[in-house]
Specification:
By secondary structure, this protein is an alpha+beta fold. Helix content is 44%, strand content 20%.
């Protein structure tokens, strides 16, 4: 940031060389901070949730292929207790 004659910028953090630097209202200080990361978009969050749900479903399905008595017992329990008509 360059200071123009007659114009005073308020104190605060400003971008400087890929990071942030503090301007105290009259001069630059030696205080520096990394630039914060951009927030995730809703699309990126939705994609991550979808991938997680699909991965969980795949793990359950895969487990059911090798140990159906462990992964499907709640379904078997419910089906076995249904009344007969």
């Amino acid at each position: 940031m360059t200071e123009k004659p007659g114009i005073k910028a308020p104190a605060g953090w400003y971008e400087d060389d890929g990071g942030l630097r503090y301007w105290d209202g009259t001069a630059w200080t030696e205080q520096r901070a990394p630039k914060p990361a951009d927030p995730l978009s809703q699309r990126a969050i939705a994609s991550a949730v979808l991938v997680g749900v699909l991965a969980a479903w795949f793990v359950i399905w895969l487990g059911a292929q090798f140990a159906s008595d462990i992964f499907y017992w709640p379904v078997k329990f419910v089906v076995e207790d249904l009344p007969e008509f």
